[in-house]
Amino acid sequence: MKYIPRHIIHPFIPAVLLLAAALTGCSAAAAQQDQAEATPSNALVIETVPETIAPLGLEGQILPGLDGVDLPDAEPAPEYLRVGVRHEIVKKVQQRLMDLGFMDNDEPTDYYGEATRQAVLHFQRQNELPMDGIVGNTTWDALMAEDAKYYAVSKGTEGEDIKRIQQRLYELGYLASADQVTGNFGDSTEAAVLKLQEVNGLTRDGKVGQQTFNLLYSDEIKPNYLSYGEHSEVVLAAQQRLKDLGYLTTTPDGAFGQDTVIAVKQFQARNDLVVDGYLGPSTRMLLESGDARPNGMMLGEQGDAVSRIQELLSKYGYLSSANVTGYYGEITENAVRNFQSRNGLTADGLVGMQTMAKLTGDDVRRAAAGSTAGGSGQSSSSGRGQSSGAGSSGASGGSTTQAPPPPASGSGVSALISAATSRLGSPYVWGAKGPNSFDCSGFVYWCLNQAGVGQSYLTSSGWRNPGRYTRVSNFSDIQAGDIVVVRGHVGIATGGGMVIDASSSNGRVVHRSLSQWWANNFICAWRIF
């Protein structure tokens, strides 16, 4: 049987119905005339209003005009919706899959790609339908039903989506080891889900349904591992390692305080982990391995870790307290160079392991008198131009402070957009961070780092509050280079009302309009440059 969704009506049906009505009216009139001739003169006669009969022309009956009738002109849907198909009805399929939690949120398109097929497969699996990734009559009816089920998985389920859930459970400390990330929802995964639900105040059913799934990547998730306030030998060992790698600026003491949180976040950011500030299995495993990347800060970086370094530079007289801003500008770079020169290190202006070790050690040489960078009457120029601060570094009688560069579409924006453009057409793959395939947040992460911005990987929900950029609250104020955050999705604005993003509905990285869909789902944008 040919698959044509019920909302599609053939354009000739209204005309056929009008013709049938007209012919019926003609037959009825003739029958009334015959009845009148056969009725006696004294019989009760009931007068009826004659029906209007459409006039006849040379080529037959003239039907009423259809100029004002709204008839669908779309081509009929194909018998089956499968990978490669383009049709307007695919938008309805994608939107429904997104609403039910089977597909990442995105602007629906008319293209049935691999991401759509995977979502359909998961829907079919949950509804005990043949898993072919194709939408026919049966799958269509189940998908569009008013009581269609929201995405949910439980013990016995297998698939790539289960592996992703298990990986997050492992990162949060609910699965004990990496070898439990198998893609098979077994006893250990069920126990992990039950524990997560208990810790986070959800109904304990061992299933990953709407509430549990949404919680997994939310800011409110409570992990099952070492976090702020803990005090133990395990914390002490982690602190020592963080200090050795140049992340911790205080003396290890076994207490998981704010300095440790900052150090852990910086470590996670440098090592492509989910940045949450917790010592979970993934973070601890990498921290203890030989693959851990040491800390290294440079011009242009921002955040609490930068503030800690600036505070130490200020403590030893290398930086004015007014320049403890959390932004690593030229004034901070000059202060670091001065510190390195005075303390027998290579004066490269970068804060690496050796510089951090010296800066946090006990034998620091203080700055020479009157050499505080950014201080009163001091020049902050390093021969490469002025700091992008609030005042001129040569202004007498006042101190120059440093701040992130003002919003501008300069070289940073150009580099970001160039990096994004270079990956147009790359396939969308959930969780991929490049360089050849991406999901939406992985694409933003890769492009920013290619443009020289030391940004850690954040999920789309994590981009709601990264805490280091200028927030843009009005959709109409978006500029080229801004990171646009919508419900469940992120992209990079390119100017002129356009955006580049890794689109699940298109199945690839695309350059498209910031349409009404983006406006309707808009949360905020972040100005990087």
Report on this structure.
- With 529 residues, the protein is α+β, with helices and mostly antiparallel strands.
- The protein has six domains: 1-76, no CATH class; 89-144, Orthogonal Bundle (Muramoyl-pentapeptide Carboxypeptidase, domain 1), CATH 1.10.101; 160-216, Muramoyl-pentapeptide Carboxypeptidase, domain 1, CATH 1.10.101; 233-288, Muramoyl-pentapeptide Carboxypeptidase, domain 1, CATH 1.10.101.10; 301-403, PGBD-like superfamily/PGBD (Muramoyl-pentapeptide Carboxypeptidase, domain 1, Orthogonal Bundle), CATH 1.10.101.10; 411-527, Alpha-Beta Complex (endopeptidase fold (from Nostoc punctiforme)), CATH 3.90.1720.10.
- 34% of the residues lie in helices and 7% in strands.
- The chain contains 16 helices and eight strands.
- It has helices at residues 13-37, 89-99, 114-126, 137-144, 160-171, 187-199, 210-216, 233-244, 258-270, 281-288, 304-315, 330-342, 353-359, 411-421, 440-450, 516-520; strands spanning 56-57, 60-61, 470-472, 483-486, 489-495, 498-503, 508-513, 522-527.
- Strands 3-8-4-5-6-7 form a six-stranded antiparallel beta sheet. A two-stranded antiparallel sheet has the order 1-2.
- A hairpin with a 4-residue loop joins strand 6 (498-503) and strand 7.
- Helix 14 (411-421) packs across helix 15.
- It is globular and about 80 Å long.
- The relative contact order is 0.08.
- Mean pLDDT is 81; it is low at 6-41 and 376-399.
